[in-house]
Task: structure prediction
Amino acid sequence: MNANLFAAIAAAFPADVSRVAIEIADPATGMLERSVTWSEIESRTAQIANLLASLNLETGARVAVQTEKSVEALMLYLAVIRAGYVYLPLNTAYQSSEIEYFVGNAEPSVFVCAPKNFAWTEPIARANGVSHVFTLDDHSVANTGTLLTAASAHSSTHEIAQRADDDLAAILYTSGTTGRSKGAMLSHKNLRSNAQTLVSYWGWTADDVLIHALPIFHVHGLFVASHCFLLASAKLIWFSKFDQKGVVAQLKRATVFMGVPTLYVRLLAESSLTREACSNMRLFVAGSAPLLIETFNAFRARTGHTILERYGMSETNMLCSNPYLASDGERRGGTVGFPLPEVGVRITNDEGKRCAVDDIGGIEVRGPNVFSGYWRMPEKTKEEFTADGWFKTGDVGKCDSRGYFTIVGRSKDLIISGGYNVYPAEIESYLNEMAGVAESAVVGVPHPDFGEAVVAVIVGKSEAVLDSGAMISALKSQIANFKVPKQLFVVNELPRNAMGKVQKNLLREQHRALFTRDT
Ligand code: MCA
Ligand code: AMP
Result:
């Protein structure tokens, strides 16, 4: 048997491959612009896979990709898997120092960028030993760029590369509480088993139509959404960018939607979101960040639909989900439901012993969904697994007597803003490097749109005159825009406890109402 994830995808193709697989919508209006059939998925991924094969890359070679969201970029992902190489997606917001790190650390053989970024990313790639640099344009200028030009010279039939369960399929970088990002190594089995579980647990069929409005450089949009549609041979309505008006305009034709909580907050702000608009829908899925109970309740009141909240991580794919079928239980707001079939989830105390019902502890997971380790970081990998093989998520939670899991916090110092992770230590390291800065503390505070927003508190060196606006502008040129603090305060000193540790809880409390009227 070929354990290549693409073999499972190809086996699920519909008998009639002339059927439309993807309809591409104009993000703002929702009007459909063009479509892609299953046979085009087959031929386009084959051509790109043949191009990659012609480059004579070593086994396990990484293909790093930083392009705008487009169906062509999805084809590239599938082609990399198909050809048996390792896909490395990069957030489109990353700046040069971030790209430099990822390329330097992962040592990809191929780098694919947006043409508009070629001038600055190509030198970084070449300096880090990348042999092949291609461009791939976005949705607005589809089918352009050197990647597709080169691929068009190749055959549109391709034999799927033979891969074993544990062979690497993707590396997803996830930041560390201290130090730099770590590459989570995901195998064909990790991705395939999780996708098959979700297709069955969430009741997918070939009649489903999924609105895809998430970015495709993270687990949620790249794996959960895309794999479910592919393995169910369903249909996608493709948005290159989320826009609430455009999405609501297409809801009537769709059956499934997936979003981070910010997308639900924005949908609720749209008056055209009504029961009627959702009358064809069967499932709304939320995850990647906590869904506020207010959002959960407001959505149910407005649409009659109960959002299914689930819980995942780059290292583990999806681990918990509220039930889909009423016979399995109700969907409970504020919880992430039950461990998925075949996935083990437990709560442990500081001594590593299982907690009693309702007791709070660390969330640990094991199963076919769990990654094998961090790329070239064996020590870090060892630290994150227990002696008996469970992965320590860094999330803190509890399990009630009916088996529902609730995430109550995080032991990792992490901010999740609009579904993107921001590690305070990383932002602090940039701030601390700036002229005149003695020290800094970065915290997340409630934000009505993004859930949490990044705020920085700075202490200047004596005599230094700090300009918070200039510091924010400087950060914007260095790091991805979603990581840049929305506000920056200059203070005389940071609050510290008796041990000298900065009391971030006091800073969070002090700035709690910065973006909300709630005091
Ligand atoms: C954009 N901005 C943000 C964010 N996004 N600020 C904070 N947090 C954000 N998430 C800022 C930009 O910096 C910019 O600021 C301004 O908003 C406009 O940028 P733009 O890109 O136009 O914003 P947008 O299109 O409105 O994007 C908001 C968004 C997007 C649609 C909510 O952030 C998004 O798609 N989030 C989803 C992320 C996701 O897929 N996460 C899944 C991770 P300025 O103008 O000052 O420059 S997977 C995961 O977590 C696990 C495994 C799981 O369980 O799924
Ligand atoms: P990432 O590093 O992007 O994979 O983010 C994974 C983290 O997102 C998890 O460790 C959780 O802290 C958080 N997360 C994912 N889903 C949920 C959820 N439904 N509720 C709360 N937090 C979540």
Q: What stands out?
A: The domain at 5-312 is CATH 3.40.50.12780 (Rossmann fold). The chain has a mean pLDDT of 96. The radius of gyration is 23 Å.
